[in-house]
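Ticket #4471: structure output looks truncated?

Reporter: J.K.
Steps to reproduce: submitted the chain below (194 residues) through the standard prediction queue, then opened the result file.
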Amino acid sequence: MRIILDFARKLFLAFHQRKMRNHCVADITTIFHRTSRVISNGSISPSILVGKNTVVCGELMVYCDGGKISIGDYCFIGPDTRIWSGENISIGNRVLISHGVNIFDSPSHSSSASERHLHFKKATIENIPSIGNVSGSEVVVDDDAWIGAGAFIMRGVHIGKGAIVAAGAIVTKDVPAYTVVGGVSSIQIGIASE
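Returned output as attached by the reporter:
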């Protein structure tokens, strides 16, 4: 029985790897964990790029109206992490992103109630995928950064090389290189080392 279960698990993982690769461009050494999801929402494959020896356990999604995600080499994207792009999200090399992190480069919905309702009707009733008239701003995470569990990285943020974002932080402004930030408004709480 154990042999059958092991075979079934390996078969599922091989199928899952292939399915995830159909929605992105990934190196052969990239690992898509069984909890990963890659959603290109009708975009062409090059809208999501994943580098060598990167492990993806979370969700990568580009909106149907556009968006691009690029992840460098030797990165880790933790379980329940969501990286959603309507503009551009660029993640460098050797970046560790813990579990439950959310990275957004777009607000996803208009601030206008009537536009949000129109978007809802188009997406659910008419089945026309669109995020509507919203503006995003690029997110950049430089090499060797570490983002702690449950952090939120909001649109327009640049996280510098080697920076550390503490668990639960809400990052709304740029984080300088080798800085440790935490809290709701990304307050500097220390200096990271090289």
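Triage note (M.O.): checked the attachment and the full token line is present. The chain has a mean pLDDT of 84.
Status: closed, working as intended.
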